Structures
1.
Amino acid sequence: GAVVSQHPSRVICKSGTSVKIECRSLDFQATTMFWYRQFPKQSLMLMATSNEGSKATYEQGVEKDKFLINHASLTLSTLTVTSAHPEDSSFYICSASLNRDYGYTFGSGTRLTVV
Amino acid sequence: AQSVSQHNHHVILSEAASLELGCNYSYGGTVNLFWYVQYPGQHLQLLLKYFSGDPLVKGIKGFEAEFIKSKFSFNLRKPSVQWSDTAEYFCAVSGGATNKLIFGTGTLLAVQP
């Protein structure tokens, strides 16, 4: 079955530094990848949609300059949290889709803690 | 833009009780509908999905859901829950040109032995 690999699974960084999270589709080409954020005991909030070779589309209220998304190939999308602050601490999850009939495959998530 | 609402935020049941979790969506076009489960400390797992065809969809672990287009609903059901069904359940909908998947707020199910 379709597999999405997300790394790292956990990261702790100092306030003011940047963190990059990778999302790879291992056995299929993902034309679209999605990035979500999940706060404790809450739902997944869509942050942005990225299509290979084009700029990401951000949801309302998500700072595009803080959360940089790159989707340079059909198998890799990255989310960089720039100048991280403690309030950016959260669980970040990526999802990949080949097309609308294929469904969605989720990564295992990244627990970001900013200290 | 599509949206999803789940009316039950917390549900507590005894083992062997029947389960129905409500999910309503808002979108004027063709939608795909999903139910995901998140067990404590674990990651999202797909329970079932509806793309087209038979509106009664059967998923894993004895779950099923019925798509009622006239009611914009996709309720999740299980005839007899087990303690191991304790988890959070998310309804999600995708549609439109962007194909983005939007989640409901989730329902936390606690099954008492």
2.
Amino acid sequence: DAGITQSPRHKVTETGTPVTLRCHQTENHRYMYWYRQDPGHGLRLIHYSYGVKDTDKGEVSDGYSVSRSKTEDFLLTLESATSSQTSVYFCAISSPPPNTEAFFGQGTRLTVV
Amino acid sequence: DAKTTQPNSMESNEEEPVHLPCNHSTISGTDYIHWYRQLPSQGPEYVIHGLTSNVNNRMASLAIAEDRKSSTLILHRATLRDAAVYYCILRGLGEQLIWGAGTKLIIKP
């Protein structure tokens, strides 16, 4: 298994509070991604990073920010959590696209009450 | 939006081959065809990818049409552990994985 760890694995938080999810890799991959997945749907890209301090927005970036201060860590922050951000969040890593595979973490289940 | 079209679900019998189709009529010359699967309550898992030629690995085979407007993922002998949602995704230069709804594969014992 690729060395990718998400923390926490489960979190319940209150509306309006900030939340930070962490993705840690030991594979030295340049690209890192944050996705969310809602019931019955495929994954939707929130933000991604193509290097330290290099990030870009995905399809559903509103309400989220990211930071990558070192190769191995990619943080996703919900600045003020809302109930619509209740979801399962997946982190992924890869070498530069398109001829590479991505490896995914086990996911973080976030509930905003 | 996802650039591929897949059936919502398919059923197959255990120990039989499974052919999962994917249409991608707007594919460009630099788009790779990727397949991932997601088992229940797990993160997605890479299966296979290709550009023009058919590809084989330990998990599956990928058959790509000559005009590249469609492809088929082939599981040679399905087991109950292959029950999952299978995603067909196009990925071009500098592009990220854009996911559709995938095909839910049901394996009957």
